[in-house]
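Risk mitigation, structural track. In case the binding assays with zinc ion fail to produce interpretable data, a predicted complex structure has been prepared as a fallback.
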Amino acid sequence: MGSVRPACEHVFAAYAPVRPGEERPRTRRERQVGVDDRPRDGNPAFDRQDWLAGRLPNGSVGAEVACPRCGGPRHRLADLPPEYLYLLGLYLGDGCISAHPRGVYKLRLFFDAGYPQIIDAGEAAVRSVLPANRINRLHRSGGFANSAPRSNVELSVYSKSLPCLFPQHGPGRKHERRIILDEWQRALVAKHPEHLLRGLIHSDGCRFMNTGRNWRHPRYSFSNQSEDIRRIFCNACVLVGVRWTTAPRTVYVSRVRDVAVLDEFIGPKR
Ligand SMILES: [Zn+2]
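Fallback model:
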């Protein structure tokens, strides 16, 4: 029996060696408090058959599956849901990531309190990307001396994985550093450009009425100080077949046909 034990089985024998089928006796304290949380080779649900089959215990991270950046389980970035791109758009438009102790990062997204549906969509997008993490919603003033109280909403979430999910994180302000999408992000955008455009417009864009002497047409604009982020917006417009024009720091989508395309998945802010 013992001859078939893999040589590396000691990896899970973090406590006193226990033969299969045996259990370590409960300690005096465990008997006193009535708990039975004895570690059984690290994971009660994990048994010898699992080990022989090459499976890993839940929550364990082997060196071959760990993310080299955050140490968590390796991310399946290509499998992220389309909502990730909406979140990316919100982050690029009006979000920031800050470093906290012990390798934890905080993502903050800023919203106008007058658009509750956008805030809800932002929260749903965070949840779809980080389903196990608590999302905080904070009402605050707009940051200007004349801002009304509670005119802004800040959504925030903590995670060690944020720099892996948003490799555009870096020191300084976004418009003062290069912002280039990673290859896996560009592949996702190629599949779902409308989600990124929606996030970008919902954060740093708007849809407004353009008027002339005898005409009135809706028009979209996207304003961002970063030329890189404006280029990301324009590239996504190409993917949905929409033309744009540029002004300093602003991109406009004005043709009736192009506005109609954006209206299919963006529309007025609410
Ligand atoms: Zn990671």
